[in-house]
Write a structure and sequence with these properties.
Radius of gyration: 22 Å
Helix content: 25-40%
Structural class: alpha+beta
Strand order of the largest sheet: 10-11-12-13-14
Distance between the termini: 46 Å
Largest sheet: 5 strands, mixed
Order of helices and strands: EHHEHHEEHHHHHEEHHEHHEEEHEEEHE
Length: about 400
C-alpha cells in the first residue's frame, strides 16, 4: 500500500475540488460548468442568509460570476443552450449533470412509494392524488404545488407553522419527483415548478438504462474524482450510498486501477486515491466556503483533512451558538484558518459580519488582510456597497 503525507492528501483534495487553479478574467457558462466537472454536484438549500447554497461554491472557485449562467444551465432548456444540469436527490437535494440522471434510477425505484415514512402515509391516504397531479401537469405544463392545488381546488387554508407544514399536494409532488415521474423544469423564487420528466430530461438520456451495480460503481468513481482522495465513508457520503454498495464498487475500481489504496499519515482509515489525481506543491489563495460547499459538507472528512471542527448552528438556539447563525469557513493557502458569521442585507446594501474567528495560531494581520479581501470580493459579487464588521470573535479588532 502506498504511503502519503497528510499535507499531500489535503492538497490532493483541494486540487480535485478546483481550488488553486488560475482564475480567468472572463467567466462564461463553460467556466461555471467546469466547476461541476470537479465537484460533480451542487447541494441545494433554502437558506438565503447570504446567497443560496448552490451559487456559493462556484464563486469560491472561480470568483465573481453572473448567477444567471448557473440558472440557465439548470433551469432553461433552449434549443441553442440545452439544459446542462438537473435536480435530484444526490447528496441531499442537488444539481447534477443532466447526463447523470439515469445513474439515479435505482434510487427512484426505492422512492416509488415515498422517500420517508411520513410521505408514504400521505400516499396511502390519497391513493388517486398522484394521478390527478400528473393529469393537471400534463395539461397545463410546469407548475408549483400551489398552482396544482388551485387547479384541483384543494387550496384550503392550513394552520400556520414551520415550512415542514406541507400540504398533501406538495408531499405527493415531492413523492412523484423522488420517484422520477416528475422533474423540476425551473425554479422561481426558489419554488420548484414540476413538470413531466419526459419534458425535462432529453430523450436520449431518458432512454438510457443502467443497472444498480453499474450506476453505483459510476457514482463512486465520480465521488472519487470529486475527492481526489478519500476513505470509504467519504466516497459513500458524497451520494448518500450504503456501505453494502460502496465496498464492492471500490473493490472493482481498485482492481481496474482507477483507485489506489493509500495509507495517509494520521488517518485512522485506509484512503483511496483517484488514479491521476494531482497533488500540487502549493494551493494558494483565499476563499469563503458556504456551509454546504462540497469540500466541507461531510464534517468528519473536514475534521480529518483540515483538523477543523465545524458544525452548522442554524438550528441551535441563539444563546447557545458558538460562532453564529450562518458561518463560512475561510480557506487560506490550503488551510482552514478561520470562520465568519455572515449576513447579506440587500435592502441596506450591506454585508454584515457579526463575528469573525481565527483558528489557533492564525489570529494575525495576514489572516485579517486575506479575509478583508475575500469579504470585499463577496460584497462586490452580491452588489452590496458596505462590509460592516461586528464585535464578536478574535479577528474583529484586526479587521
Amino acid at each position: 500500500m502506498r504511503n502519503m503525507s497528510a499535507s499531500a492528501a489535503r492538497r490532493t483534495a483541494l486540487a480535485a475540488q478546483g481550488f488553486g487553479a488560475r482564475r480567468h478574467a472572463r467567466v462564461t457558462r463553460r467556466s461555471v460548468l467546469g466547476v461541476l466537472d470537479r465537484t460533480q454536484l451542487l447541494q441545494l438549500d433554502s437558506v438565503s442568509a447570504v446567497v443560496r447554497a448552490h451559487y456559493a461554491p462556484v464563486f469560491s472557485r472561480i470568483g465573481a460570476y453572473d448567477r444567471a449562467l448557473l440558472d440557465q444551465a439548470a433551469w432553461s432548456n433552449g434549443v441553442r443552450r440545452p439544459r446542462a444540469l438537473v435536480e435530484y436527490w444526490a447528496h441531499e437535494a442537488a444539481l447534477i449533470p443532466v447526463e447523470d440522471w439515469p445513474l439515479m434510477r435505482w434510487r427512484m425505484r426505492q422512492y416509488e412509494h415515498g422517500r420517508w415514512s411520513g410521505m408514504r402515509k400521505v400516499v396511502e391516504r390519497n391513493p388517486t392524488l398522484g394521478k390527478d397531479i400528473l393529469d393537471v401537469i400534463t395539461e397545463v405544463g410546469a407548475a408549483t404545488a400551489g398552482e396544482v392545488e388551485r387547479h384541483l381546488e384543494l387550496d384550503k387554508p392550513r394552520p400556520k407553522g414551520s415550512w415542514w407544514n406541507l400540504s398533501d399536494t406538495k408531499m405527493i409532488c415531492e413523492q412523484l419527483f423522488a420517484a422520477g415521474s416528475l422533474s423540476v423544469a425551473e425554479r422561481v423564487g426558489f419554488a420548484r415548478h414540476y413538470d413531466l420528466t419526459e419534458r425535462v430530461i432529453p430523450a436520449d438520456v431518458l432512454a438510457r438504462t443502467v443497472s444498480e451495480q453499474d450506476a453505483v460503481r459510476e457514482l463512486v468513481r465520480r465521488a472519487a474524482t470529486a475527492h481526489g482522495i478519500g476513505t470509504e465513508t467519504d466516497l459513500r457520503d458524497y451520494y448518500r450510498l450504503q456501505r453494502t454498495q460502496t465496498e464492492p464498487a471500490i473493490a472493482e475500481l481498485v482492481d481496474a486501477g482507477e483507485l489506489i489504496p493509500v495509507a495517509v499519515e494520521g488517518w485512522d482509515k485506509p484512503g483511496f486515491l483517484r488514479a491521476g489525481a494531482p497533488a500540487p506543491r502549493r494551493v494558494e489563495g483565499a476563499a469563503l466556503l458556504c456551509p454546504f460547499d462540497p469540500l466541507i459538507f461531510f464534517r468528519a472528512r473536514t475534521e480529518r483533512i483540515f483538523d477543523f471542527h465545524y458544525r452548522i448552528e442554524i438550528y441551535t438556539p441563539e444563546h447557545k451558538r458558538v460562532h453564529g447563525y450562518y458561518v463560512f469557513p475561510l480557506l487560506l493557502d490550503g488551510e482552514l484558518v478561520g470562520r465568519v458569521d455572515l449576513r447579506a442585507e440587500r435592502a441596506t446594501g450591506r454585508l454584515r459580519v457579526p463575528g469573525a474567528f481565527a483558528e489557533p495560531g492564525y489570529d494575525t494581520l495576514a489572516t485579517a488582510h486575506a479575509l478583508t479581501g475575500a469579504l470585499r470580493e463577496m460584497a462586490d459579487w452580491l452588489e452590496l456597497d458596505e462590509v460592516v464588521i461586528g464585535d464578536r470573535g478574535n479577528l474583529v479588532s484586526l479587521l
